[in-house]
Amino acid sequence: MNLIKMLHTRTLNLSYNALKNVQKVAFSSNTTNNMDTTYMEIPLYDVEKQQPLEKRKARLHYQSRKRGMLENDLLLSTFAKKYLNGFNEKQTMMYDRLINSPSNDWDIFYWIVEKKPTPKEFDNEIMNLLKKHAKNEDKIALRQPDLH
């Protein structure tokens, strides 16, 4: 019994020391020392790129779902599921510019929930519809739509 206890203790000590070394390496990185990690930028996408309407809508469905911020994933994916297929080309472009032009997802979120004023270039019928959608006046439990 003593041998088993000794081996168990030795294994725990080795595991602990290995974890300490990993933490030392992880916390010694200086890649984010001068960066505000609460404000991560959205990768740029060329919204003016020529694209067939149906292909643009398919891309927007995906981009609405995969934002990197759960709040926007939920709001934008349910919004796109409900409205995007009915948008004409002009409305689709407004939505594309809205979700792909700002440099930060928090900006979009704060505009949608009206915690910050919407900049003039995004203050349009699509933003108004999105704000109404976010209010969820019918109190429907929202969940991300299934992938096709």
Question: What is this structure's SSE topology?
Answer:
Blueprint: H1 2-27, H2 53-65, H3 70-83, H4 89-100, H5 105-112, H6 125-135
Helix pairs in contact: 2-3, 2-4
Protein name: Succinate dehydrogenase assembly factor 2, mitochondrial
Subunit structure: Interacts with the flavoprotein subunit within the SDH catalytic dimer.
Keywords: Chaperone, Mitochondrion
Rounded to the nearest angstrom, the distance between the terminal CA atoms is 57 Å
Strand content: under 5%
What best-fitting shape do the alpha-carbon axes yield?
A: elongated
Decide which structural class fits the backbone: mainly alpha
Helix segment tally: 6
Radius of gyration: 23 Å
Low-confidence stretches: 24-29
Main pleated-sheet profile: none
Q: Name the average pLDDT.
A: 79
Tell me the series of helices and strands, N- to C-terminal: HHHHHH
Number of strands: 0
Give the proportion of residues in helices: 55-70%
Question: What would your notes on this structure say?
Answer:
It is found in: Mitochondrion matrix. Belongs to the SDHAF2 family. The protein is mainly α and 148 residues long. 57% of the residues lie in helices and 0% in strands. α2 packs parallel to α4. It is elongated and about 75 Å long.
Which descriptors would you attach to this protein?
148 residues, chaperone, SDH_sf, SDHAF2, elongated, 6 helices, 57% helix, SDH, mitochondrion
